[in-house]
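Morning!

As promised:
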Amino acid sequence: MDIVVENLSKSFGPQKAIDSISFQVKRGEVLGFLGPNGAGKTTTMKIISCFLFPDAGNVQVGNYSIRKHAAQIRQHIGYLPEHNPLYDEMNVIDFLQFIARIHNIPRYRITARILDMLRLCGLEKEKYKNIRELSKGYKQRVGLAQALIHDPEVVLLDEPTTGLDPNQIVEIREMIRTIGREKTIIFSSHLLTQVEATCNRVLIIHKGKIAADGTSAELRLTYTEKLLRLVVEGGNTEAVFNLLTGIPDVEDVEITEENSFRIQAGRNAPVEKDIFQLCEANGWYIKELVPIEERLEDIFRQVTQSS
Amino acid sequence: MVRTIGILIRKELDSAFNSWAIYTGYLLFFCICGFACWLSPGNVFTLGQAGMTPFFTVINWIAFFIIHALAMKSVADERRSGTLELLLTKPVTTFQLIAGKFCSYLIIIGIALFLTLPYYFTMTGLGSMDHGAVLLGYFGLILTSACYISIGLFASSAAKTPISAFFISLGTGLCFQVLFGLLANQIPFGPVANLFGFLSLPEHFESLNRGVLDTRDLFYFLSVIVLFLALAKLYINKYRH
């Protein structure tokens, strides 16, 4: 099922949580939802999951609209809320059974589904424990199990990896990638490396608006300047620096160490050629001229600090 | 629809009977009932006749306090812990949620009332009883309890914490239980006095307790229940807008 979000707006009192955002997620796509705290990620997820009502705009999940078919959408959505609310006094099996029954899973399939979920989420050893007694990581797994038990076509995960240790994070990432092949997944996180490793597409949301949308490779192309590392031999560092700053397309030069420079230039400017010609004219030779890959962190910072 | 309500009722009852609070509540209920019925100065032996009318009035007051304590956590706690979000993003409507809670509390009270039946059998042995009046008395108790439950659910939906829910629900309950009756007595006559008289809950309960079944009383109880359950639904949805 595809998700189509159209001009969605929601305010809490005078504060606009999300301001007319639109995007689409296709089946088989894992969308990473990024943004600083209070950017509107959770609000958007709560609206898609039919918990909050939007002030304006619409969300279409498959052929269903949140305004008209909330009941059907809830049946097809698996949602893990941000703080992972669970009934602490229940034990794991009872809780999953309750959720399975609420989802109208036929009685004969419930046991099989619960066993599948216990296996998938690694809860087999903890299945008889009360949820209250579980550690944060295991609670998070129960949260995931309840979101996936009815085999939903759309999965919304609001910061699913908080409180997990690095091994668990990798496991959950793998799981998201596996289930993401056949389902539509929106997944929010603060950990940018994780989003990059898991998601096909990244959506950065800032102050209630979409600040960037695309695959991480596309974002790099659009939002980053060209960064080069240059190591030159045979010249005085000072002199090379002065001449490098003189190249018209170069925006910034930084001396990182003796004979080594970090050069920033416009994305499409042919600075490599200019640098080469400059070195040739002065009799220096280029030991290294390599592009520096920008990380998603830098793009994130750039996009969310600009306004 | 009904199936979902059934699942919610079962879940509520499971978690209720899994905690000590409910057994403490029952114990308190039976201690006070037993004391009022057999040991207090106005006990059944001083009445001079076999009847359960004074006993039902006592039960009504105990139920009044216990139900507010029982219902205060219902929605407020779920909202605070976030499980309200969990439930309402599952195929559960607000109506089903409220209906599930309402019915489960009614069942808990029903069990308490059922366990007072030995009093009835004992008293039948002590003298001739008006069985119809006892039946209507029990019916009246169920209806008044349902009113308190709906008031409790409304307060729990409107308040942010269980304790403020308790005070809101106790306050609203006392208006129906005491205040409207007092006002009706204070104002000598006229439509306002009649209105307060009609709003006073004991007026309607007493007539059932005496063994009189009047459609006006039934109408009154049903309207109070529906009104407060509708308000509960309104408040739960208000937080989602």
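Chain B is about 85% helix and 0% strand.

Hope this helps with the figure draft.
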